[in-house]
From TrEMBL:
It is an enzyme of class 2 (transferase). It comes from Paractinoplanes bogorensis. Keywords: ATP-binding, Kinase, Membrane, Nucleotide-binding, Phosphoprotein, Transferase, Transmembrane, Transmembrane helix, Two-component regulatory system. Its EC number is 2.7.13.3. This is Sensor-like histidine kinase SenX3.
Amino acid sequence: MFLVGVAVVVAVYGGLRSNQRENAERVMDQRTAMVEAAVRTETERYRSLIETTAAGISTDTDLTWDDFDTATAPLASANLIGGASLAYVVPAREAQIPEVQRQWRARGAEGLTLRPVVAGEEHFFTIFTRTLNAYSPQMNGLDVAAAPEAATALTDSRRTGQPSVSDTYVLLRDRNLPAAEQQRSFVFAAPIWTQASIPVFRGWIILGLRGADFLRGVLATVSQGQLDGELLATGRDGGRPVVADYTVGGQPDLQRSVDILVADREWTLITRADASHLPGASSTLPLTLLLTGSAMTFLLAGLVYVLATGRERAVARVRVATAELRVAEEESRRQAELLGAIMASIGDAVGVVDENGAFLLHNPAARKMLGVAADEDDPASWQQHYGLYRPDGRTPFPVEDLPLMRALRGESCDGVEMIVRNAQHSEGILVSVDGRPLDTSAGRHGAVAVFHDITELRRYENDLAVFAGVVAHDLKSPLTVIRGHCEAAVEDLDDAPADARGSLGRIILAVDRMAALIDTLLAYTTARDAPLRTREVDLGALVGAVVHDRTAHLRDEDQPHIYVGPLPAVTADPAMLRHVLDNLLGNALKYVQPGTVPRVDVTAHGTGGPWVRIQVADRGIGIPDDDKPDIFDSFHRAHAEAGYAGTGLGLAICRRIVERHGGEIDVADNPGGGTRFHFTLPISQESDMTKDDEAATRAALERALAERAAMENARLPGLGALPAAEPSAHDPAAARLRTPVPDHHPAPAGPE
């Protein structure tokens, strides 16, 4: 007894020491989370402040120094950690510099001298400046174009209409300081657009942020002197330079790294700490417990010896315990019998395996559905023993992808389809399997699977698909005949009254609308029921093809301004994804004020995970706030009264397609006017494959899909029925071409 007690005390001592380490890890996670939250909060506050300031200044058509001073005075006491200065910046071409200088001197910029530093077509001058700390003097008239990093951020901000953050560099105002006092810094830039119906660009509000001061201020406040820190910023060229570091001493043995999205840039914060400096990582409790436990073990061993001499009492207690054990055993037996009766009587097929894959339970419905009387306890033999195949009926189902194996790995899955074909089911049956992990009260791990025979359901769906295709054909055939007769009548009735010819024209338009509605309804059904044929899709090439289809037929003077940023490869059904892009771009080109050249930006941003966020922003007529909650509903049209044609199903189809890919789609206002649609898609995980591997994988996928299609009696109409946004009197991009070309159109000269 004494030896066992000592062993337990030693084990507890080791557990406490391990717990101290776990406490240190947990405290490290908490401190890092606090620092991350502080950095996110502060950077979001900087972005929000300059965006709000820009919005306020945009309402003042004749901005003066007094106006700027009043608008920015609260920022001087806002405790902006690391903030150097806030400035109002305007663009000016070489020939405009004298006039711009006279204009802003007249508005209160005393002694303003615009000093172009670099040769270039356009310069960016600071007009009004507010310093945010004592050692930052006012420096009006600086040419921000002298810093390529800041100039790029200003250009991006003006183009997108959103705040932007520069790559790291030394601020122009700090370049006269000694090298030891210079810091790598950033500028936040927010564009200023007028509130007119056709916005006019007026300049930027920029905020200079010193990286070392910012990191030091955040860590000193939040980490309580326990964390080292290092801040890295991902530049537009893909590099990740170290912006600043902060050291508190010790021997760091813990490290964490978090990525933080700041406006349109990504920063990386690395924290380190010495575990012995963190709360809960060191104390005398384990040693005290070891000594105290050893003493108590000695006393307990003596007490047990005394109690063991009372034989009769010990025997009586054993009898009582044995009786209770027999009662518990009987209750367990009854529960097991009840569970067996329930499993034998239910119609759903259920199978349960232990952590090694050995079957613990197969109810009668499962044995009948699988068609094999004897169970196989080796998972490697399941495919051959039960005859399990992919839905194409030929490809053996990989063991690692079986629902029970996925459930044993802790992954839940629903609706996994497979073919069961063996001696009992020679023709094969299609089953849908749901798998779940299983933890028993005894601490054993396992998995449970429920099987559903969906053979008849799939036949019904196929029959319904054929029926839908036949109905669509039978509906469109009479419409084609009507249209043909009307066109013939128009050609033959040259001398007929204008009213008669106009009536025939209206009949033709009605026939076209009916045919388009039939196509749209088929596409609406297809987006929900057609099988997803996902593969790696070059999003840039696909957008380029859609842009070409929409604009290739237009004259040069009618070409819209379309900007397409860098786009990654995604995993998607290319036909369905093309429809989403075609619909959103078609809407952006259609819903504009008459006589206005459409402007569209297509960009992509990471989400910090395996998803990418694609954004289509326009400068059109926008969507009323009351319509935004319903814009993705079927047959909802926000601008029907304005004469814009459409069926009200385009965005509903887009939502179905995006959600079938596991993503989300939403809409918001564009700060510069117009609408901004955004949706998420999974990033392709195959982009690092070699060309040979990629070709082999694509060929195997195409073979599997072809084999599956061959065994189906019929399928839903193809995605060729997916319609584009319906053309209207305002739509300059109604043609449908099919040759992909690069997308970029030149940006307009001068301020937007």
